[in-house]
Amino acid sequence: MTLRLRLTLWYSGILSAIIVGVGIVIYTMVATALTRQIDLSLQSSAHEIVRAISPTGGSVSLLVNTLPNLQRFGTPSVYAQIWLPDGKLALKSELLLIADPLDPAALKAGKAALSEVTIQSYHLRVFTQPVTTVDGNVMAYVQTAALLHTVDTTLDTLLVVLAGSAIVAVALATIIGWLISRRALAPLETITQTALQITRADDLSRRIPMREVPQDEVGRLAMAFNESLGRLERLFNMQRRFLADVSHELRTPLTTIRANVDLVRRLGGADPVSLGAIQSEAERMSRLVGDLLVLAQADAGTLPLARDPVEMDTLLLEVLSEAQVLAGGVKLGLGELDQALVTGDRDRLKQILLNLVSNALKFTPEGGRVTMGLSLVDNWVRITVSDTGAGIPPEELRRIFDRFYRVDKARSRAMGGAGLGLSIAQRIAQLHGGRIEAASTGVDGGGTTFSVWLPLAKPRSAREES
Ligand code: ADP
Fold first, then answer.
1. What percent of the chain has pLDDT over 70?
2. Are 287 and 319 found together in one domain?
3. pTM score of the predicted model
4. Residue of 399, 400, 420 to mutate, ligand 1, most atoms within 8 A of C-beta
5. In this structure, are 273 and 422 located in the same domain?
């Protein structure tokens, strides 16, 4: 569930609870007030009637003879009945059509009671007041009643108004809350998108545009994020510069060492084995320093890259023939070969292919096979280098392009590899707008296939049209 949805749900949920609570209080208060008014008038009418019949001295027969005229009591909307203890109706208001007891239960209770009854679809409020003689016997019951029609209608209307306004209020609040939270959270979305772009493009120089974020908590977050990015970028640049400087500075002394080894060898007198060791290590170090410099330059965007048309099929054949000397007991052959033209740096592209082929030959035992091929897939050239070698375990596969990463450290090092070849190849492919992928069964002898994807100089659709 998104933060926006959660906020809106909480907001409208709490609002609904408050509105319902307030609604219940209002409804109850109005209902009580209205009923109380009716009760008061029922009670006062009943008491007036009781007062009028009390002086009969407590005798029922006397009472029957001196019954008051009920029309004189209470308001026109109050009806009354007088019941004798034996259950006979002594008198009722003329307007009242009901001749049954309004509240039969109260007639037996012997004490004053208020109740609500429904008789013949009339909803009534009834008050029952017993009339007692001086010695405490019930001489009669006075029941006064009023129609609750007006109260009911008022309460129904109130209920409709309350429920209607509650629904409208909650709906409006939900919609407004949804819109407000979108507005409030939109800058977060901008920040997220920028952060994702930075990650995807591997570009630390990007920043969250501050004019698109408000100067509030979100703005502060964006600012903090930008500051962190700035610091990261500075650190990265420093590290790159350091690497570039170090590799650059190391080249000169290494060249001097190699030149002097040559000189000492020519002059003679030194131990040739030691000299050989110094020379091979110095060469290895030169290679390593050269590789580091290429990577540092590629990272810094200062690697000189030509943008020439390169016939990849010709280049592939050239690499194939050059690599034959490395093949030894491995059969190095050609698979499918299409024609393809890409734009780029011929030497660097050749470096990629040579690297892949020499790796394949390195990791394929005698009697195995290494095949190179070139095919066109949509607007891409796909150059494959497949071998029948040891293969690469799946968990290592995505790491082999990392710098200094070697699957079998001891073996790779013994073969002279520092684990930089593939990272350089990948960087060069990326600088050409392409990429390198590796696929392997991970089974010994199952082999590995490296695919170099490069964009065609001229998209196929455009070529077909021309
Ligand atoms: P190195 O210079 O050490 O060969 P790379 O970057 O070229 O470094 O390769 C990284 C690692 O990937 C190698 O050490 C090796 O373990 C593995 N690898 C590369 N190519 C192959 C292959 N064709 N078959 C098996 N493993 C390979």
1. 92
2. no
3. 0.61
4. 400
5. no
Atom of ligand 1 nearest to the CA of 447: 24
Q: Given 155, 178, 199, which residue is the final one in a domain?
A: 155
pLDDT of res. 63: 66
Q: Could you give the CA distance from residue 35 to residue 261 in angstroms, rounded to a whole number?
A: 116
Q: Max alpha carbon distance in the chain (Å)?
A: 160
Determine the distance separating the centroid of ligand 1 and the alpha carbon of 347, expressed in angstroms: 21
d(CA 287, CA 291): 6
Mean of per-residue pLDDT scores for the chain:
88
Q: How far is it, in rounded angstroms, from Cα 447 to Cα 445?
A: 5
Residue 293 has pLDDT above 70, yes or no: yes
Identify the domain boundary among 132, 155, 178. Answer: 155
- With a 6 Å cutoff on the Cβ, whether 407 touches ligand 1 is yes
The best mutation among 284, 387, 422 to test binding of ligand 1, ranked by most ligand atoms within 8 Å of the C-beta, falls on 422
For the Cβ of 330 lying below 6 angstroms from any atom of ligand 1, the answer is no
- Name which residue sits closest to atom 7 of ligand 1, judged by CA: 421
Ligand 1 atom with the shortest distance to the CA of 360: 23
Cβ partners under 8 Å of residue 424, min gap 6: 291, 294, 295, 298, 351, 355
Give the Cα-Cα-Cα angle 394, 399, 404 (nearest 5 degrees).
140
- When pLDDT is cut at 50, 70 and 90, the band that residue 128 belongs to is very high
pLDDT digits (tens, 9 = 90+) for 182-207: 888 888 888 888 888 888 877 788 88
pLDDT digits (tens, 9 = 90+) for 413-428: 666 678 899 999 999 9
Cβ–ligand 1 contact at 387 (below 6 Å) = yes
- What is the tens place of the pLDDT at every residue in 143-187? 999 999 999 999 999 999 999 999 999 999 999 999 988 888 888
- Assess if residue 237 is contained within a domain: yes
Please state, in angstroms and rounded to a whole number, the distance separating the CA atoms of residues 355 and 419: 11
Using CA positions, which residue lies closest to atom 18 of ligand 1? 359
pLDDT of residue 410: 65
Could you tell me if 56 and 159 are in contact, meaning their C-beta atoms sit under 8 angstroms apart?
Answer: no
Residue 208 lies in a domain: no
Lowest mean pLDDT: which of 29-38, 201-210, 303-312? 201-210
Ligand 1 pocket, residue 448 CB under 6 Å: yes
Tell me, in angstroms, the distance from the centre of ligand 1 to residue 419's CA.
7
Among 369, 407, 411, 415, name the best residue to mutate to test ligand 1's pocket (greatest count of ligand atoms within 8 A of Cβ): 407
Domain around 72: 3-155
* Ligand 1 atom nearest residue 418's Cα: 3
Residue 317 lies in a domain: yes
Domain count, the chain: 3
Q: Which residue owns the Cα nearest ligand 1 atom 20?
A: 359
The CA-atom distances, in angstroms, between 129 and each of 4, 32, 61, 82, 338 are 62, 21, 19, 10, 112
